[in-house]
Amino acid sequence: MTEKRHIGVLTGGGDCSGLNAVIRAVVRRAVGHHGWRVTGILDGTHGLLRDPPAVMDLTLDLFSGEVLRQGGTMLGAANKGDPFDYPGPDGVRSDRSQDFIKGYRALGLDGLVGVGGDGTMRILSRLSEEGGISVVGIPKTIDNDVPGTEYAVGFATAVNTAVDALDRLQPTAASHHRVMILEVMGRDAGHIAINAGIAGGADVILIPEIPYDIEKVATKIRDVLEGGRSHALMVCSEAVGTASGKAVWRPDEEGKVRYGGVGHYLGEEIHRLTGAETRVTVLGHVQRGGIPTSRDRIVASAYGVRAVDLLAEGNAGRMVGWRQHGVIDIPLRDGASGASVVDVNGALVKTARGLGICLGN
Ligand code: F6P
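That is the input. Now the predicted structure with 6-O-phosphono-beta-D-fructofuranose docked in place:
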């Protein structure tokens, strides 16, 4: 048992499965092992910017069995809450980072565990460096694109959901002799697409890391259909864009890019070029929900424990991660520097090509 401390935990960015498992692990380790107090910050960074801060006490009795299995986050999340560029009610943006620090101090926190993607890591890293607060980051995102770690919480569940979709699409594709196109998420990286495509038996996988030639995709589909199989499966990442490289997106509430719909473009092109009947499924936010897989629960648990222990050791300013069968920690700012994308010379690309899967080039 170490000295009694008080730490906060928040879930920033978009949600995903496994966040509740992280919160549970943080509480079990901090309260159950170290004897500390844990306060949950509500709605990501927003909670500390409210006056008084919007928080909840996280006690062990809240975690009596169900939470580990639940999707979403019991604390709420926010992907538009950058305190350095915070939108006011009138839409005018201002730097409210000092208010965030004030909220942290008003609660009497000795440390903060921030769960988020690369955007959240960037914010946390600035807050820890400029505000002098003790922060440890835990990577989460279905996109799995946080640098410095092999796994972000939520990715495994999203891949399973996409594979499940392919398992459901294949029989109906076969019954109707159709080409099924499954569009999956992945803002900057094609990790979900390539993993799900290999596991789900796709004939074509398109990822943003590999520019595609639509004629080559059409040739592959023709080869499959003329080679004795009357249906085909294709997975595309939402960020692949059209054949001329134009992204398919609509502005979100703040005018920022929200991908979605390139699958429909590809469906029309494949039909135009091959004559095949095509149908498109845009999987969307289904990938962000659901019961977390065992992998996500294990990674979430390992990260939660390590994050608390880093705070106990006085090692703040770090992000936990997973590398070669174990938990590691790296400087927080290293988890905030760009996106980790699919290695075009890596094992998965080689496996896909080895299986005869067309990657569009
Ligand atoms: O970054 C995670 C992610 O789910 C992306 O895959 C997707 O493009 C985006 O978030 C969707 O964001 P929102 O929840 O704002 O629609």
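Residues 169 and 223 are 20 Å apart (CA to CA).
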